[in-house]
Amino acid sequence: MQKLKDDEVQASLVNLEGWEAKENSIVKDFGFKGFSTAIEFIIQLVPVTEKLNHHPTITNSYNRVTVSLTTHSAKGLTKTDFKFAQEADNIALQLRR
Length: 97
Known about the structure:
The chain is 44% helix and 22% strand. The chain is an alpha+beta fold. It has a single domain (6-95), classed as Gyrase A, domain 2 (2-Layer Sandwich), CATH 3.30.1360.
């Protein structure tokens, strides 16, 4: 996987709501109605990690889940990080309905 240039990262962020570039990562804090929905979100991310062979850093505090994405082998962001981010957004949207 090839590391994206800064302008490619910024262009890719335009298509994602709420994600921020921080150093060599993109990060988003997701809020849910309660703890069980936050955990369900994390569980639903598992198939995404397997499909993309990409494993984020995930933290949880009650109804909040923070997802941080980077590609360690590329030492920065790749297209896979943005694919994962889009999938995470789609899952969160479904759980909030």
